[in-house]
């Protein structure tokens, strides 16, 4: 999974503000232990194919009408969802059946509006399903969603849309936090460009603690007004250790490559920092009109290529 965290700065009265945010570092299956009443469907082919039989330990759900059918799980509260797993029919008692492609819709607690899980163009995304009966296929969501209700709509199938499924919900968060030291009082706390941090006669020092990524590089994009993307005005570094009483930093590379006024920053991590909490320091020394409005950090909590859960016991032990 490739998550992009958006850390918005907001100004607060006082010298030090602490902003906590969450990064998902582990997922769990949410359907396997759901009660029967949490699972519903547009129809069932027979009682032995009702919605509760869509768990991966069961025979599989099958609708009695093939086109336009759906199966739904109610997670009882909003959850952060990072992916969906599907299997074909859970028994070889008949011709092999599985769902080859599907759409996903979702709804948050308290809303009647179904959202489409879309591709970047805004069209309903077609997820790739199974190619055979027993092998699970994991679809990692490019963009995690927050939802209480998830619906899966089979689009195409082999012999019939009999299927089992699982939804992966975030089970473990890395709690990181940002310390801000502002040498200037400011009043508002809002995410608008009118409320950016002004660097004139000021210093902005942001200290991100406990970030985690599975990549050996981390990209930051600094967004603001009149930013000078060079080390005369800004310093960004990854903490790599202590030397006596001083903290040592590995400095990041900075440029405004895209000419879009945003500073693009590349930080390299030491091998031993990959997958471990690390600290990042951002210091802006000021320039006449410089304002910092938002910092985007691109963190990759999963190693690439982790797409199919083959061994559930191993998976459960490792979430
Ligand atoms: C499901 O419930 C069983 C029995 O309570 C428990 O051992 C197992 O860890 C649960 N699985 C998950 C993924 O929560
Ligand atoms: C069907 O599956 C069962 C259990 O998975 C297995 O024991 C049996 O050999 C299978 N039958 C055929 C015809 O593949
Ligand atoms: C979801 O997609 C369907 C079919 O493409 C479309 O008719 C509907 O308006 C979309 N819903 C939303 C909320 O965008
Ligand atoms: C980062 O990881 C890639 C492969 O994952 C490797 O090729 C590269 O040498 C690493 N870079 C550093 C600086 O360790």
Describe the protein.
The protein is mostly beta strands and 319 residues long. It has two domains: 3-23 and 174-299; 26-173, Jelly Rolls. The protein has one helix at 312-318; strands at residues 3-8, 16-29, 39-41, 71-87, 98-107, 115-116, 127-128, 137-158, 164-182, 197-198, 204-211, 217-225, 234-243, 246-251, 253-255, 263-268, 278-284, 291-299. Strands 2, 3, 4, 5, 6, 7, 8, 9, 11, 13, 14 and 17 form a twelve-stranded antiparallel β-sheet that branches. Strands 1, 10, 12, 15, 16 and 18 form a six-stranded antiparallel β-sheet that branches. A hairpin with a 2-residue loop joins β13 and β14. The chain is elongated, with a radius of gyration of 24 Å. The two termini are 14 Å apart. The structure holds 2-acetamido-2-deoxy-beta-D-glucopyranose (NAG) (4 copies). Residues 28-29, 32-33, 316 line the site of one 2-acetamido-2-deoxy-beta-D-glucopyranose. Residues 20-170 form the F5/8 type C domain. Residues 1-17 form the signal peptide. Its main location: membrane.
Major sheet summary line: 12 strands, antiparallel
Could you give the distance between the termini? 14 Å
- The class by helix and strand makeup works out as mainly beta
From the coordinates shown, what is the CATH architecture of the largest domain? Sandwich
> CATH homologous superfamily name of the largest domain?
Galactose-binding domain-like
Give the averaged pLDDT, no decimals: 80
GO molecular function: signaling receptor activity
Subcellular location: Endomembrane system; Secreted
Protein name: F5/8 type C domain-containing protein
Main location: membrane
């Amino acid at each position: 999974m490739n998550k992009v965290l958006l850390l918005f700065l907001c100004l607060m009265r006082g010298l030090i503000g602490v902003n906590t945010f969450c990064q998902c570092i582990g997922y769990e299956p949410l359907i396997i232990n759901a009660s029967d009443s949490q699972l519903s469907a547009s129809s069932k082919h027979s009682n032995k194919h009702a919605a509760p039989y869509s768990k991966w330990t069961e025979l599989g759900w099958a609708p009695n009408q093939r086109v336009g059918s759906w199966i739904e799980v109610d997670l009882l509260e909003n959850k952060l969802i990072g992916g969906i797993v599907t299997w074909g029919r859970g028994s070889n008692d008949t011709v092999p059946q599985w769902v080859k492609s599907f759409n996903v819709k979702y709804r948050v607690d308290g809303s009647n509006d179904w959202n489409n899980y879309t591709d970047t163009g805004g069209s309903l995304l077609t997820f790739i399903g199974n190619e055979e009966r027993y092998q699970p296929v994991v679809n990692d969501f490019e963009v995690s969603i927050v939802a209480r209700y998830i619906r899966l709509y089979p689009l195409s199938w082999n012999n019939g849309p009999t299927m089992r499924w699982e939804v992966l919900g975030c089970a473990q968060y890395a709690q990181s936090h940002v310390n801000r030291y502002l040498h200037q009082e400011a009043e508002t706390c809002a995410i608008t460009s009118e409320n950016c941090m002004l660097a004139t006669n000021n210093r902005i020092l942001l200290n991100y603690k406990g970030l985690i990524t599975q990549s050996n590089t981390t990209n930051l994009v600094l967004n603001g007004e009149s930013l000078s993307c060079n080390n005369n005005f800004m310093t960004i570094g990854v903490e790599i250790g202590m030397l006596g009483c001083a903290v040592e930093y590995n400095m990041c590379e900075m440029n405004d490559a895209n000419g879009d006024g945003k500073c693009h920053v590349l930080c390299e991590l030491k091998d031993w920092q990959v997958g471990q909490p690390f600290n990042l320091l951002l210091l802006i020394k000021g320039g006449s009109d410089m304002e910092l409005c938002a910092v985007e950090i691109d963190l990759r909590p999963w190693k690439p290529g982790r797409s199919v859960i083959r061994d559930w016991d191993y998976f459960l032990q490792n979430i």
